[in-house]
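Support case: user asked for a sample of complex input and structure output to validate their parser. Sending the pair below.
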Amino acid sequence: MTWADRLLRLDRRIIFLLVAAGTALPLLMPVNLPISVSPRVEAAYQTIDVLPAGSTVLFSLDYEPDISAELQPMTIAIMRHCFRKNLHVIALTLYPAGPGLVEPAIRVAATKEHKVRNKDYAFLGYKSGFQTVMIGMGESIRQQFPVDFYGTPLDSIPVMRGIRNYGEIALLVNLTASSAADYWIQFAVGRYRKPMVLGATAVMATDYYPYLSSRQLLGLIGGMKGAAEYEKRMDLFGDARRGMDAQSLVHVIVAFLVILGTVALFASGQRGPAPRAEKPQE
Amino acid sequence: MSPVETWIAAFLTLCVFSFLYRDNPFYRFAEHLFVGSAAGYLLAVQYQNVILPNVVLPITTGKPTPQTIVLTLIPLMLGLLMVARVSPRFTGPARWAIAFYVGIYSGIAVPGYMQAQIYAQLSDAVKPFAPGWGAVNSALVLIGLLTVLAYFFFSAPHQGLHGVSARVGIWFLMVAFGASFGYTVMARVSLLISRVQFLLRDWLHLIPMS
């Protein structure tokens, strides 16, 4: 058996170990590789940065625990930016498991920027039904959310005073891992002409580039890398920036293994992948 | 998160990772626990957020008017009809509810989709070239758009100019797939990093807290 054949029959658990080491070591011994801010993230940052103090930003945080690794640091960074600029924040989620993530994220951001619930921000909680909620909010936010997440009527919340529908919202920020972004673009941007910034998972990010070009989106933050760029722009050192060393090393490992596997495949003279080793007896 | 919760989360995380070695009872325990608790949680949340405020409270709170009762019961009936198709006797009436839903959804979605995904994108595709080096980018986008469309045009054989365009279109598609694949790797690695961060920081305290 040649070296190439042996390589092609490599136990994949060795690759898992390599990736595990590539993830853990940079977290234990960070080298803080430089991060450059992409034009898409810079555009998102600038869109928020130029809003006058006292403007209201609506956050739709449509994600659940499976994707919090990418979007939770993004939520905290963008929200802290809004709080630093003295913008009013109204947050909601269209996912049933969202409140458990969104509520602590808002609390962390507000605590770090010394902001107070109901005075500087409101969390409306979860509401079922994507499109109906989005369209309904165009008529009346109170009709969709009569009370906030904590059961307080919206009329009793100072930050909600004078906020009736999208007309009083300066910017929509949607952080999502799903088609919620498409619906927000269709209804809030298309029908109600609201400016929008999108934070998406890395898998989705490329799908939304055309909306940047057409100015349906004013900024796009993609995945943990986008969150790290935003943190850098904010001069923060959050979970996303901490994870970027590991991200880079694992990418190097993956690229190296792809090249090695391809060379081994050509060297072995096979026209397809090697037959799998026998499954170990349970 | 309390220490007990952290230990439970760490144990379940390790149970799931154990699948990387081979399938085992610990993995299956975590998998079943996750599916069960997620389903239970979803049911409770939907009851609290949908059934309770839209069905129970309007009828049971105060003195409901006939209008309130009718406006509550009609959607409730339509919802029940959708579920009723489990019985062959109700397959026909179940279609009424589905037809109503499809009709409403189409009415809402089609104009929005056409405006946001078709007209706005078409309008962007035909806008004048950007000045300076931006024109190169605009030209690439235009060539990419036309050649990819040529690839997906199957009503004529991919020969001659059409064939050349289609082959160029494949290159643009490959670049797009490559970018998507790169982002997908990044997304999956992000999930791993998050779990490893949790294990090393929150559980083992080997790295400092945020």
